[in-house]
Design goal:
The structure is a single chain. The chain is α/β, with parallel strands linked by helices and 260 residues long. Helices cover 40% and strands 17% of the residues. The protein contains twelve helices and ten strands. Strands 1-4-5-6-7-8-9-10 form an eight-stranded parallel β-barrel, surrounded by five helices. A two-stranded antiparallel sheet has the order 2-3. The longest helix is centred in the N-terminal third of the chain and has 19 residues, at 3-21. It comes from Sphingobacterium cellulitidis. Residues 4-255 form the Indole-3-glycerol phosphate synthase domain.
């Protein structure tokens, strides 16, 4: 069983428990559920921003604890100040030490799009994302069937959310292209063994239809890599570990952004 398999099994258990604790109607009654979401495309294509989707991530299954001292609020505010186009916050608890409360904490200090980084297996999690302040939800093609991607993305759009689809190969891409998707990210990290290769991005960039925002994810640690990925056709770049592993993620992104 891969790490991804274990995460999905655990996630289904979590969702079942969450539904018993908080009903869909209760989520829909939360104040943040009614807010209008920031537009991901507009923010990514804003020439005054960097195209970076900067991630707050305390830990990961492959690295363990990455940063246990920097708070959500200080980090994401620093990311925003450094010109990030959007923010990603991990909400998985068991494998990444995140929470929905982290999402709301980020929302309280941001004026740019916020992604709930999560392993979504049920529409309930999409309602949660809206209720806790997200503007964007993530759908991972590796753990969803074609019809699930279609139905979940359409539900997210009905709530006014932006939809970010993550793929790892051409097969996943081809099964996942729907009008209800806003951005397609190529994850350079294999979720089955956590190895990283930028070749995933270069192999797929020209196979992603031009109407979608194109995002390269993971394994980006050098501003020169961003320049090369931009030249190849990518609009955005999801970076987390490279900043979070430092003592001062806010300063790290500032120095990085100045070199793009």
């Amino acid at each position: 069983m891969t790490i991804l398999d274990k995460i999905v099994i655990r996630k289904k258990e979590e969702v079942a428990a969450a539904k018993k604790n908080v009903s869909l109607a209760e989520l829909e009654a939360m104040p943040l559920f009614q807010r209008n979401c920031y537009n991901l495309r507009e923010s990514i294509l804003d020439p005054n921003k960097t195209g970076i989707i900067a991630e707050y991530k305390r830990a990961s299954p492959s690295k363990g604890l990455i940063n246990g001292t920097s708070t959500v609020e200080e980090v994401v505010a620093g990311y925003q100040d450094a010109g990030a186009s959007a923010i990603s916050v991990l909400t998985d608890h068991d494998f990444f030490q995140g929470s929905l409360e982290d999402l709301t904490a980020a929302r309280n200090v941001l004026q740019i799009p916020l992604l709930r980084k999560e392993f979504i297996v049920d529409s309930y999690q999409i309602a949660e994302a809206k209720a806790y302040g997200a503007d964007i939800i993530l759908l991972i093609a590796a753990c969803l069937e074609k019809e699930e991607i279609k139905s979940l993305s359409e539900y997210a759009k009905s709530l006014g959310l932006n939809v970010f689809l993550e793929v790892h190969n051409e097969e996943e891409l081809n099964k996942s292209i729907f009008p209800s998707i806003d951005a397609i990210g190529v994850n350079n990290r294999n979720l089955k063994d956590f190895s990283v290769s930028l070749d995933h991005s270069y192999d797929l960039v020209n196979k992603i239809p031009s109407q979608y925002i194109k995002v390269s994810e993971s394994g980006i640690s050098d501003p020169e890599t961003i320049k090369a990925l931009k030249k190849a056709g990518f609009n955005a770049f999801l970076i987390g570990e490279n900043f979070m592993k430092t003592q001062n993620p806010m300063e790290a992104i500032k120095k990085f952004s100045c070199s793009i």
